[in-house]
Amino acid sequence: MLDSIIVKAPAKINLTLDVLHKRNDGYHEVEMVMTTVDLADRVHLQPLNSRKIQVESNNGFLPTDKSNLAWQAARILQERYAPKTGVKIYIDKKIPVSAGLAGGSTDAAAVLRGLNKIWNLQLSTEALAEIGAEIGSDVPFCVHGGTAVARGRGEKLTFLPAPPPCWVVLAKPAQGVSTKDIYSRLNLETMKHPDTGRMVRAIEEKDFHTICLSLENVMEEATFSLNSDVKMIKDRLQQYGAEGAVMSGSGPTVFALASGQSRADRLCNGLKGFMEEVHVVRMIGTPHKPL
Ligand SMILES: C[C@](O)(CO)[C@H](O)COP(=O)(O)OP(=O)(O)OC[C@H]1O[C@@H](n2ccc(N)nc2=O)[C@H](O)[C@@H]1O
Ligand SMILES: Nc1ncnc2c1ncn2[C@@H]1O[C@H](COP(=O)(O)OP(=O)(O)OP(=O)(O)O)[C@@H](O)[C@H]1O
Questions:
Q1: Cα(68) to centroid of ligand 1, in Å?
Q2: Residue ranges covered by each domain of the chain
Q3: pLDDT in tens, 193-246
Q4: Is 174 exposed, middle or buried, given 0-12, 13-18 or 19+ CB atoms closer than 10 A?
Q5: Which ligand has an atom closest to residue 151 CA?
Q6: Among 3, 9, 233, 249, who pairs with 110 as Cys (CB 3.0-4.6 Å)?
Q7: What is the CATH code of the structural domain delimited by 5-160?
Q8: How much distance in Å is there from the Cα of 147 to the middle of ligand 1?
Q9: Where is the GHMP kinase C-terminal domain (predicted)?
């Protein structure tokens, strides 16, 4: 058994997000293009000789009990493959919580990848992603990282090349939203669907301009109606010269893409005048390297 390990757990953004219909199991069939950005939690894993799973974090608002998705990931692996060991998980939280950036899902994915290594389980990435789907719909993507079209509940992944290098300005309004609530408020009859095919082609052709034109998210209307700040931030980003801007996931984070750092910094400075949580990061878009 290896000693401690620190696993980087990056946030995701949705370049497109489409909802096709509601399924009999209560979930929705989705089609969305997801990619990773360089805003990441650091998940520290330290094996324990007892069966304890202990979670700590620098963020006092995070649950440290079994409702933490990182705890759930450790429990599943322990029950199935390593009944005699435990782990201390310390989450150095950098990703805003309840933001639409898959913060909890990426921590769970980091625990799956990290424990696979330190408990020497030798599970494939596909097997870890399958386990991840039991924890949450965004976890399989977070296990792989990179850029992908996600279908089904979010677990059926078709991988794409990385988008062209660019900057991402992430703006998170203070008030969070519940993913479940936003799904239940969607108007499936009247929504305008994104052109997912155009986004996929633009990524394959590394056509930054068309990527910006193709950013679309069917959840915006529902989130805007609950939190008017979200629309206001998107409008401001467009007024300040964003090449493209859209909400990520169920929100409330809105992001803008910029081909150069100076434009990204200008957008960030414009927003900083009236909101606190703004990050300028690089798009990553390539799958995680093996640990
Ligand atoms: C909005 C997205 O973040 C886009 O990437 C995801 O679709 C949500 O992924 P997630 O937060 O991992 O979602 P889960 O934890 O699996 O589900 C939370 C709740 O969202 C709803 N949900 C989620 C995924 C999906 N395909 N259909 C749904 O209806 C369900 O009500 C579920 O109870
Ligand atoms: N490790 C974790 N990090 C963040 N939130 C967690 C974690 N584990 C459980 N949670 C809980 O999950 C809820 C959603 O948090 P999260 O940051 O994952 O939202 P999100 O970014 O909107 O997720 P998604 O984009 O996957 O819908 C919060 O209520 C939080 O308390």
A1: 16
A2: 5-160, 167-282
A3: 999 999 999 999 999 999 999 999 999 999 999 999 999 999 999 999 999 999
A4: exposed
A5: 1
A6: 9
A7: 3.30.230.10
A8: 19
A9: 199-274
